[in-house]
Amino acid sequence: MAGVPAIDTFRLYRFINNTRITILIDNESTHNFIQPHVAKFLNLPVEDIVPLRVMVGNGSVMDCRQLCADTKLLI
Description:
The chain is mainly β and 75 residues long. It has one helix and four strands, in the order ββαββ.
């Protein structure tokens, strides 16, 4: 999400709402994230949440402020 590829990240192509997206899988991750502009493009329902600080694969810290509840992703 920070735009910096990690060596130990696996890339898959799957579909959400009939739109092909790129999924990055990191075996040390505990949650799933989607870029806000992608969620908007896919018309996913978004709800505001109490900000959650997240450390991404490259060590950067990002604030997560929204949630796409009940978004299904089949891998």
